[in-house]
Inverse folding.
């Protein structure tokens, strides 16, 4: 068994605490850090810059290559699926949305999760009939009423 010394924001060396405060503002949390990282403000700053890049989703191929070129052991990319919504949020109330794990959280995405991700998903695609013109008119009229009656 290998033991690693870990630090939190409270136990990190004083020199690292200002940067950890910045990390917390940017990320919303402080990761538990391997001791050598927390004890080196220079390494911690490099880690923060790297996380700012790889912590976002949807890296371009050039950004992925830049990260791979760093040659950091344990840093790699996993292929991910994304659902595409051609009309943006126009049908959001019906279609719903997925979480970061691509599992349906609302609407058709949630109610048809098994059909969309199960073993038969590729064989039997889900088809919806939604009229964008009608939906657009409904959205515009609803928005007008919200504004007219100060319901927003």
């Amino acid at each position: 068994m290998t033991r690693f010394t870990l630090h939190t924001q409270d136990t990190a060396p004083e020199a690292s605490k200002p940067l950890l405060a910045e990390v917390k503002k940017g990320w919303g949390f402080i990761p538990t850090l391997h001791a050598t990282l927390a004890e080196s403000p220079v390494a911690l700053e490099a880690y923060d810059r790297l996380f700012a890049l790889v912590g976002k989703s949807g890296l371009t191929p050039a950004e992925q290559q830049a990260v791979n070129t760093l040659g950091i052991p344990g840093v790699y990319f996993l292929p991910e699926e994304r659902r595409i919504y051609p009309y943006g949020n126009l049908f959001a109330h019906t279609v719903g949305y997925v979480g970061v794990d691509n599992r349906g959280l609302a609407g058709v995405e949630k109610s048809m999760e098994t059909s969309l991700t199960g073993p038969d998903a590729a064989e039997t695609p889900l088809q919806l009939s939604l009229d964008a013109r009608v939906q657009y008119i409904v959205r515009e009229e609803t928005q007008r009423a919200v504004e007219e009656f100060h319901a927003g």
User: Anything to note?
Assistant: The CA atoms of residues 116 and 127 lie 11 Å apart. The longest strand covers residues 104-106. The first helix runs from residue 17 to 27.
